[in-house]
Structures are given as C-alpha cells and as structure tokens.
Amino acid sequence: MMSGQPLGSRVWLLSGVLLVTFAGTDAYGFGRCPNYPSMPKFNMSRVLGHWYEVERSFYLPEIASGCTTFQFEPYNKGEQSKFSNFKLAVAIKNINRITGNPNVNIGYATPENSRSSIMDFKFTTRFPDVIARLLPGSGKYQVLYTDYENFAILWSCGSIGSLGHSDQIWILGRDRDFEVDVRSKVYDVLKRLSLDPERLIISKNKQCPEAL
Ligand SMILES: *[C@@H]1O[C@H](CO)[C@@H](O)[C@H](O)[C@H]1NC(C)=O
Q: Any one cellular component term from GO for this entry (predicted)?
C-alpha cells in the first residue's frame, strides 16, 4: 500500500519506472538532448541526390514501412551556385508492407547557418504545420557525419517535456546495403559519438520496386 505517499510522488515514481523501461531501447534518456556540433567542412552540394535507408533506430510507428528512400535536391537551384549551404527539398518515399501502398512525403530542410549540417525540417505536403510539428518527421535534423559517397548518419532528438529526451538515428546509404568495410566504418563513427550501434535495426529493403 502507498497510503502514506502524496499522489505527486507516486506519479513521479511511475514515470521514473516507465522511463527506465523505455531505456532498454536507449531511445529515451534523462536530461536534455546531447549536443553534437555540426559536421566540420560540411558540403551540402555533396549530399544531394538519392539515398537508401539502410538501417535505423527502432521506431514503432515505422514498423510497417519498408523500401524507404530519401531524395535531396536544392529547393531553389539558384541558391546552390551562390551559397555553400542552401535549403533542401526532401522527398521521403516508402512502402507500407502490410497494404503494399507507396507513400511519398515531401518537405524541406533549412540549414541553421551558412556552414551547418544542422537543419530544420518541415513537411510541405499531407499535414498542416500544427500536426507536422507533432510527427517525428518534423523538427531539427542533423547530419552527424557522412563520407558523401557511401553513407550518411542522420540524427534527430527532441525533449519529452522536462522529463528527458528521445532521439532517432538513420543510416543512409548510396546503395540498399553496405559492404562490410563501410558498415564497420559507420559503427566506428557511431561509437565515437557515444551512440550505440546495437540500437539499429536493418531496414526492410527486400523485394523493393526499382522506381522507389
Ligand atoms: C562542395 O562540393 C562541390 C561538389 O563536389 C564542389 O564543387 C565544391 O567546390 C565544394 N565546396 C567546398 C567549399 O569544398
């Protein structure tokens, strides 16, 4: 019986227990989001084009999707020749593996300054702004590291009230899967950033249509 305890501390205890339970997936942590600096010498022009989602951290709402691709293009072609950093148009495509239906989300990413790999991402389609802000797709995104030619590590983190934070990792590849040496390079970089590669699951990329 908890008869002696005020309600407030019981609620606090309960949320603590919930956070510890979630901490098994490591997507939730106490305190603020860790602060990663922008990737040094980040070159926006070199991340343009087509990427496949090869691995990502577990995220329940995405459990049914597969064959996810990302396409990055300059939002305004003129900006690319004038500035080293510019706004991106982003298309994220995937397939619902239960219904087989394709799904396309269009958005744009605005870099926080002229050299930063940290971007503010918003959907332009499907959702009104208010709803889009609640979805995991909108918010601050960061290219933690990329070699431009094989892989890119994309990361996003948001606070959950005052209780803690939740973050997501996407490993994008120029091909649907990695060669062994590329994968071990990716994992090395993650470990140096104190991100646990154990959190990643291989994306569902079997029997994907060529066009996506
Ligand atoms: C960025 O990459 C583009 C395309 O490879 C290249 O032309 C440009 O010189 C690079 N910019 C810098 C500052 O290195």
A: cytoplasm
- Closest by CA position to 72, among listed 94, 42, 51: 51
Pocket test for ligand 1, best of 44, 46, 85 (most atoms within 8 A of CB): 46
Does residue 198 fall inside a structural domain? yes
Ligand 1, CB cutoff 6 Å, lining residues: 43, 45-46, 84
Domain assignment of residue 75, given as a range: 20-202
With H, G, I as helix, E, B as strand and everything else as coil, classify residue 192. Answer: helix
Is 207 inside any structural domain?
no
Measured in angstroms, how far is the CA atom of residue 43 from the centroid of ligand 1? 6
C-alpha 177 to ligand 1 mean position (Å):
26
Give pTM, 2 decimals.
Answer: 0.81
Question: Would 50 be classed as within a structural domain?
Answer: yes
Residue 189, in any domain of the structure: yes
What CATH number corresponds to the domain at position 141?
A: 2.40.128.20
Closest ligand 1 atom to Cα of 44: 1
> Into how many domains does the chain fold?
1
3-state secondary structure 17-29: HHHHHHHHHCCEE
Name the pairing type of β-strands 65-74 and 49-57.
Answer: antiparallel
Cα 17 to ligand 1 centre (Å): 49
* pLDDT for position 136: 55
